[in-house]
Amino acid sequence: MKVFRTFIIAVVLCSSGIAFATCDKGKMASTPSSRFTLNGAEAFDRETNLTWRRCSVGTTWKNGKCMGTAKLMSLSEAKEYAKNTGGGWRVPTIEELYGIVEKICSNPAINTEVFPNVRDLGAGALYWSTTKIKEIPSLIYYIDFLSGGADGHTKGFSMAVRLVRSGK
């Protein structure tokens, strides 16, 4: 019964959106803020020559924060949204998305100064990539920004989206 109660408490805390970020301060950050040029709602990654939207799709940059809740959508909806946004915005590849995982942190596993307001969306902080899993092409890779782990899911599943574009 004790294990069951612990599970219930964990589910309640996670579903409430409460984040308890933990970072290993004894290790060097993989995505230090100094790597990025921040310009309001955008972050240019000088290491990869990519510009990221600092807020998840569905949230809005206001007063130095991402306000609102990330919109969950299928991969085809995410691609259509990016296309309609214009300006070269797109859904990232798994390599690009994994490149902004902060490897010394969890819950969330992302630099929260650069990418604020990443939180549990019910089953983690799952974000689409466009990369198919080679061995199982019906599955597409995604990143869980709570744990920093990658996995795969079908295109119709609903997840969050962070847009990217090449260059400044």
UniProtKB/TrEMBL annotation:
Designated name of the protein: DUF1566 domain-containing protein
Transmembrane segments: none
InterPro entries (UniProt xref): Lcl_C (IPR011460)
Domain Lcl C-terminal stretches: 45-165
Segment forming the signal sequence: 1-21
Record key words, sorted: Signal
